[in-house]
Amino acid sequence: MSKVKKLFSNYIFLRVIRAILTIFIVATLTFFIIRLMPGNPIEIYIGQLMSQYGMSFQDAKNQAAALFSIDLDAPLSKQYVIYMRNLLRGDFGVSFLSQGTPVSLMIAAYLPWTIFSVGISILISFSLGITLGMISAYKRGGIFDHIVSTVAAILSAIPNYLIGILLLIIIGVQLGLIPVSAMRGTVSPGIKPGFTWTFIKDIFSHALLPIMTYVVSTVGGWTLSMKSSTLNTLGEDYVTVAKARGLPESRITFAYVGRNALLPLFTSLTMQMGFLMGGSALIESIFVYKGIGWALGSSIAQRDYPVMQAVFLIITIAVIVANFIADLLYSKLDPRIKIGGE
Amino acid sequence: MSAKNILRRIFLEPLIIISRDKAGFVGFIFLLFILLLSFIGPYFIKLDTEVKLDKIYQFPSREHILGTDNQGRDIFSQIVNGGKDVIIVAFLAGLISTLIAVSLGSLSAYAGGLTDTIIMFITEIILTIPQFPLLAVLAAFVRLTNPTMLAFIIGFLGWPALARAIRSQVLSIKERDYIEAARVLDLGRIHIIFSEILPNMLSYIVISLIMAMTGAVYSQVGLIILGLVPFYGHNWGLMIQLAWTRGAIFYKGSIFYILSPIIAIALFQWSAVTFTRSLEGIFNPRLRAGE
Lengths: 342, 291
Prior knowledge:
The structure holds 2 protein chains of 2 kinds.
Chain A: H1 2-8, H2 11-36, H3 41-53, H4 57-68, H5 76-88, H6 103-138, H7 143-157, H8 160-174, H9 197-234, H10 237-244, H11 249-287, H12 292-301, H13 305-333, H14 336-339
Helix pairs in contact in A: 2-13, 3-4, 6-7, 6-9, 6-11, 6-13, 7-9, 8-9, 8-11, 9-11, 10-11, 11-12, 11-13, 12-13
Chain B: H1 3-18, H2 22-39, H3 41-44, H4 75-81, H5 83-111, H6 113-128, H7 131-141, H8 147-157, H9 160-174, H10 177-184, H11 189-197, H12 202-225, H13 236-245, H14 255-289
């Protein structure tokens, strides 16, 4: 009995359970939206097939069933079980538009680019933000602090897709610094993937505008939070004690102030990841960067329901997994979390 | 607390205090300016819908202070007439989010135990689902036939973060002496929440409402730009969407056409955030210290 109790109070175990439960709930919701909503995609698709191609109801129904990998004649509960089993196997059905392409293949082609661009952006933005924030806090009231804080406040308030459009028209169209249309897509045709300089240069040039957009729109937030967090930490007793002990300034700055000021920012990191993954639908559509966000935008625009349903699920799962990893990292950095309590 | 007192606390006191905070005051002035422009302006400046092919992409002049668009129509009149719908939808959505967040957040904190665990679990789950994709997918299923529907969908998904914040606020107020006194007097849960706890959080709730509005502007304009909001009308988001889908943004001379709605939205967001940030700075110490 005590073993079971111990397991349930285990931080990591609880996180795993919650992540799985959330994925399960989202998958279930998606199923019921697809099947039960008035004017659900299956009915729409069957109607379309019948009116456009003159198919009989039975033929249209069979084709719809194949596309969604759902047996439409089975009772709903059984359909649900089959749907869940297919999901576990990674079978998301077949795309409406590019007939015959399994959705899982499309996801495998798109998802890495989004993880790549969003991941790099968070790294750059987070390290830049905490550096600027710490300097601002140390030089508070000065010109540097004023400029950085004002710009940060403005940038963090503007919706990221507007920053994307601004970058596009200022750098691409008005100044003509970069060839916008040549930078569409994720990789130039004819370039082979591998650890070669040409490939790496190419993928970064394609991801340049999305990465710039993510960084510019989030760096302000990090700067402001790091500044206030550092200011709070500077007033702590242990910093005063460290100073009184005559520890070197650099040691106090990094080991005492920096490390502790960073901790509260890690919780926002998980929120940020979800937000950026979600916002990628807009950013990638603006730049025609063919990642999972672009796939979501275009599948919705073209009403390609199997793709749309799968992409939505995958984005959610990616966010949940990212959150989970961040949580684990955070519990390593701040052991107080594991012991529990709020 | 009387109605007069409440009015005084929400509107008058913040104004007096905010005039002492530079950034907050600037934010407040801009916010007021945008609101007046969008709600009073349309009575004086009518939307220019007449296509004038000889006046395409004109630069700002005395006649057209923001220039003209790809069909020779006055951009300034489009800006003046394009804010109302965006702000109304944002306000409605923000109001719905705040209402749900306040009810669930305070119930969760006040009831505690199993109720608290269940509400917070649901909150956490909705919070982990990326909101914009969910909205986009829902927009594809639900026929968004009017602005109210859009506001409802955005509002119904926007409450979780707020509910969590409200919950921790209530948790801290709950332990105060006067709440203890009300409990001893057996005034009932509903009475204590709505008459004792919430009035003491009014300033915080107003701040949350404005923040929820900025979130709603983000989602709303994003959906419009992706082309997922099919109803007719004229607003800032639609201006951007048209300029984008018709390729006007790739033409050098269109800079005023595309920049105007972007700046209008950015200015609204910035002034709202700045205004509330300084409001928060003003109210939070009082909340923490207790009255």
